[in-house]
């Protein structure tokens, strides 16, 4: 329960794997040394409303070219105007969700900042110790469906957290806006469109289609068009994160065949 563990999301792109691993090594080392929660945050590339933002204070130390900062606060998924303001302030970084701590400390944090969830997790722990998986599943079902970011991080005392500034070419490719940002940077183009597309005075667009139809873009900016065999999505980069609202309406109207 006192060995460092790290959360590693599955939908991230990391260009420089060695620098990424160096950051994780430093995080684990500092957890053992300080007992604090370690997290990794990366420089923001554009205003995002699907990512959390970590604010850092003064640099605490540098270890083998890895910069470690004091924690100054966390804002989960701000609105677009707030995200634009954050982009202009170097102290705001994208929260990359590489939490590193010990199991004992994670559980204690839930018990302090989200007591109901903490109590349920302790029941899970005791049930698993007794070999009762059904009881563990029931207890886990009683936890509030929220993220660690909302339940704990936003409430934590900054003195209990250190932030590593990640510099390893990071992207969260779980959203259309972030996918466009990564693809356009890699290909050094303004539009991500089919090879046969015709583009007239258009920029910042992402078009993906499963059909052989000719795609033409004329005088449009920052739109996302996703065309599949049974569905068509048209949105903008700024609103792309609201696709989850579409999914909710599909479920509410009983059209599960489109999911």
TrEMBL record:
<protein>
    <submittedName>
        <fullName>Mannose-1-phosphate guanylyltransferase</fullName>
    </submittedName>
</protein>
<dbReference type="GO" id="GO:0004475">
    <property type="term" value="F:mannose-1-phosphate guanylyltransferase (GTP) activity"/>
</dbReference>
<feature type="domain" description="Nucleotidyl transferase">
    <location>
        <begin position="4"/>
        <end position="182"/>
    </location>
</feature>
<dbReference type="Pfam" id="PF22640">
    <property type="entry name" value="ManC_GMP_beta-helix"/>
</dbReference>
<dbReference type="Pfam" id="PF00483">
    <property type="entry name" value="NTP_transferase"/>
</dbReference>
<keyword id="KW-0548">Nucleotidyltransferase</keyword>
<dbReference type="InterPro" id="IPR029044">
    <property type="entry name" value="Nucleotide-diphossugar_trans"/>
</dbReference>
<dbReference type="InterPro" id="IPR051161">
    <property type="entry name" value="Mannose-6P_isomerase_type2"/>
</dbReference>
<dbReference type="InterPro" id="IPR005835">
    <property type="entry name" value="NTP_transferase_dom"/>
</dbReference>
<dbReference type="GO" id="GO:0009298">
    <property type="term" value="P:GDP-mannose biosynthetic process"/>
</dbReference>
<dbReference type="InterPro" id="IPR054566">
    <property type="entry name" value="ManC/GMP-like_b-helix"/>
</dbReference>
<keyword id="KW-0808">Transferase</keyword>
<feature type="domain" description="MannoseP isomerase/GMP-like beta-helix">
    <location>
        <begin position="197"/>
        <end position="249"/>
    </location>
</feature>
């Amino acid at each position: 329960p006192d060995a460092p563990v790290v959360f590693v999301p599955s939908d991230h792109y990391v260009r420089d794997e060695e620098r990424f691993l160096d950051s994780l090594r430093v995080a684990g080392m500092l957890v053992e040394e300080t007992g604090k929660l370690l997290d990794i945050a990366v420089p923001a590339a554009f205003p995002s409303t699907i990512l959390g933002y970590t604010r850092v204070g003064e640099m605490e130390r540098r270890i083998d070219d890895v910069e470690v900062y004091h924690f100054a606060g966390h804002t989960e998924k701000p609105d677009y105007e707030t995200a634009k303001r954050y982009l202009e302030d170097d102290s705001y970084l994208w929260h990359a969700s590489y939490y590193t701590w010990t199991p004992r400390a994670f559980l204690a944090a839930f018990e302090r900042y989200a007591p109901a969830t903490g109590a349920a997790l302790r029941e899970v722990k005791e049930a698993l110790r007794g070999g009762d998986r059904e009881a563990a599943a029931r207890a886990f079902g009683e936890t509030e469906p929220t993220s660690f970011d909302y339940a704990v991080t936003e409430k934590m005392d900054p003195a209990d957290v250190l932030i590593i500034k990640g510099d390893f070419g990071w992207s969260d490719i779980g959203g259309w806006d972030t996918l466009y940002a990564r693809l356009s940077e890699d290909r050094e183009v303004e539009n991500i469109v089919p090879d046969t597309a015709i583009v007239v005075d258009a920029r910042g667009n992402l078009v993906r289609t499963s059909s052989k139809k000719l795609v033409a873009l004329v005088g449009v900016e920052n739109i996302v068009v996703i065309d599949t065999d049974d569905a068509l999505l048209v949105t903008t980069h700024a609103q792309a994160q609201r696709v989850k609202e579409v999914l909710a309406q599909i479920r509410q109207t009983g059209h599960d065949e489109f999911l």
